Amino acid sequence: MPITDDSRVAEELREKYAEKGLDEGIITDTILNTGLLLKVRNQYYPVRCCAIKSILDRAGISGAGLRRVEKNVYARILNDCLKVAKGEALLRISECKTTNYNCQNKWSNDSLPVNYEYQVRHYMAVLNLDRAMIACLYGNNETEFFIRCVERDLDIEEDLIAEEEYFWKENVEKAVEPPYTEKPDLVLESIRRHCGPAEKDADQVKLDRKHILSLERYLKLKEEKAQHEGEAKKLDGLMKEACAGIVEEMGVSCSGVLKDGPVAVSGQPSGDPGDHAEKAGCHHGLLSGKPDSP
User: Fold this and answer.
1) For site-directed labelling of 23, which of 30, 136, 217, 224 has its Cα 20 to 30 A away?
2) Residues 68 and 50 sit within 8 Å (Cβ to Cβ)
3) Residue 288: what pLDDT?
């Protein structure tokens, strides 16, 4: 449908955008360029220049003359053509993501991270749409990306809404922070980002007594860790002692075979590969024994 600067729908959209903190310039830009709105389930969506081509392709029409007709005529032509057009829905959700090159496995076998799935399922529930597309760029060029389609599932959506309702009533309305469920490193990183860098001159904080048990557990675990680290260092020394004679006999070689026995020995030198003294010393980073091939 057409939209003009002095129309009632333009005024209503501007008020709606202002209430939601959205850019009202989108309405102005739409009026100055396409002058069209897409109406879906009594909701109005500005048709921007980036979207009009898709609509024209779907309607199966083209030509520079379309831009010269009045907007109400333009809208009627589009509507008449769209009524007989076949194909996929005009309106859907498109969500774009980026990820590290080494995280491709999370998208393998046509899968996608579950948090992204539930994100777009929430969008579909709110907007009452049936499909969402997720695109994820994982490399440095336009060919290294994934595209996943998520179809609306009302059973999953019902469970999601129930979880969201519980969170709202039990946490948001009651001002109760939900427990952390992520891995400890992620939790600590999230807290650091939220609080910002430490300040040496900041006032001392009086901690709640509820933290006593956590503090006692932390100190106990710290002591256990120290004991294990001491034991690990001791074992490391015994391992080096056991392999010293083998390393000496191997010299600069990285492999050896036990005489009159079915065991082969290999080692990975550490440090500068050209340092023969280090190759021949106890710094063979790894000695492994395995059956020799017949």
Assistant:
1) 136
2) no
3) 53
Nearest residue to 103 via CA among 142, 144, 138, 147: 138
Q: Dig out the tokens for 45 from the structure.
A: 């969506």
Taking residue 93's Cβ as centre, other Cβ atoms within 10 Å add up to 18
Pairing verdict, β 263-269 and 255-257: antiparallel
Q: Where are the domains of the chain?
A: 8-84, 93-152, 216-291
Are 262 and 292 contacting, i.e. CB atoms less than 8 angstroms apart?
yes
For residue 269, the model assigns a pLDDT of: 56
Phi/psi of residue 5, nearest 5 degrees: -65, -35
Does 293 have pLDDT greater than 70? no
Residue 275 confidence (pLDDT)? 43
- For residues 24 and 31, the answer to whether their CB atoms sit within 8 Å is no
Q: Which of 125, 145, 9, 150 is nearest to 71 (CA)?
A: 9
**27 contacts 10 by C-beta, under 8 angstroms:** yes
The string of pLDDT tens digits covering residues 212-231 is: 888 888 889 999 998 898 88
How buried is residue 247: exposed, middle or buried, by Cβ count under 10 Å (0-12/13-18/19+)?
buried
DSSP state of 174: T
The pTM score is 0.47
Cβ density class 32-55: b for 16+ within 10 Å, e for less: eebbbbeeeeeebbbbeeebbeeb
CB atoms within 10 A of CB 279: 21
Q: Are 107 and 146 in contact (CB under 8 A)?
A: yes
